[in-house]
Amino acid sequence: MKTERRRVPAAVPHEDWLLQHLRNPGLAAEYLNASLAEGDQAAFLLALRDVAKARGGFSEVARQTGLDRVALSRSLSARGNPELHSLNRILEASGLRLVIASTEKALPGRRRASTPKPAAKRVA
């Protein structure tokens, strides 16, 4: 008796799956934040490269940012080092923005620094 082989469907390529999900700005933001948490600049730039690919590819992002496509590709390589201005333009074209947040937690009983209130006028 001949055994019949079952055909197992091919797996979805990882990159195609990732790029499909990175079209969602919320997931793209989480992906970039996770890569930043690694503390490795190359990992962050490669993650930003994935986001750029998902948002229309280098040609589209270059058109939206006004940057040269080849320069964009180089700056988002593992050895790239984009300027802050370029980074902001790339993020904006991807529907994202750079945000700075405090790592300190507010201590109970402490108030935030505020502007001093003007002194009350004396009436003589």
Which structural traits does this protein have?
124 residues, mainly alpha, 49% helix
Topology at a glance:
Elements (H helix, E strand, L loop, with lengths): L13 H8 L3 H13 L3 H14 L2 H9 L3 H7 L8 H10 L31
Helix pairs in contact: 1-3, 2-3, 4-5, 4-6
Describe the protein.
There is one protein chain. This protein has 124 residues and is mainly alpha-helical. It has a domain at 14-93. Helix content is 49%, strand content 0%. The protein contains 6 helices and no strands. The chain has helices spanning 14-21, 25-37, 41-54, 57-65, 69-75, 84-93. It is extended.
Provide a quick synopsis of the model.
By secondary structure, this protein is mostly helical.
